[in-house]
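Limitations
The structure tokens in this dataset are predictions for the assembled complex, not deposited experimental models. Users should treat interface geometry with appropriate caution, especially where small molecules or nucleic acid strands are included. An illustrative entry is reproduced here so readers can see what is and is not provided.
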Amino acid sequence: MKKEKIVVYTGLGDVRVRQSSHPVEVKKQTPRDLKKKEGK
Amino acid sequence: MLLPLLLQIAADRGWGKFFHDQMKITFPPHAEIELDYMPPDDEHVWITFAMTFGNVPEDSLLIEHECYAGMKRHFDPMWYSIGIGASFEYPLWIYCTRETPHVLKMTNLTGDYVTADSVIWMFEMTRSNFAKFQEFIQGIVDFFGGTRELISYIRLQLLLQLYPEIRDELRRALRAEARRVLREYDVYLRGE
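Predicted assembly:
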């Protein structure tokens, strides 16, 4: 069975993953992008 | 929390600015992650002084920060119910750079999906302004924490109580010294 991912949406700051129990996907998005996606 | 007030002084002097950043993490059941959070360039220092979480069910996430040489459980200054209780309170105050990132560890304690919608509150400075800020902080520590100075102050007060007639003489003598110290902080007395 495929292990599900942890998804990290970041804004201005950079993120570096040290360790995790699951595969991680980092998506750089500004808060404005997130709001657009949610249709706000 | 008095520490952000020091940042307000730094902001008034034009050393940096307050801002906040958003980070949203979606956790599968029982997932755990340890990550470094840092500014995107080498030029800046971020002082992260608070982190708040919206819409996280209570006790669903264990959040820890590497702060004061150890992982400390998260204390949310704006939402008391996160965490166990008052014994874990501590001010978040991390000098966050690319070499010394803010280390965060989050664990989903439940068997459900959890989304941590977090806001990181911080103050941004360039490295040269950060050096000035550190000097300023050290000055405050020396002023309030210097035992020798405190004893000198008490002695001075005693002296004035015993010999009130020397007050004017002392004022004249100390005025020059006070003026010199104030000038270092770009503060000038009236009439200068």
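Some entries come with short summary sentences. For this one: Strands of chain B lie at 16-27, 32-38, 44-54, 61-66, 71-73, 94-96, 102-108, 114-126.
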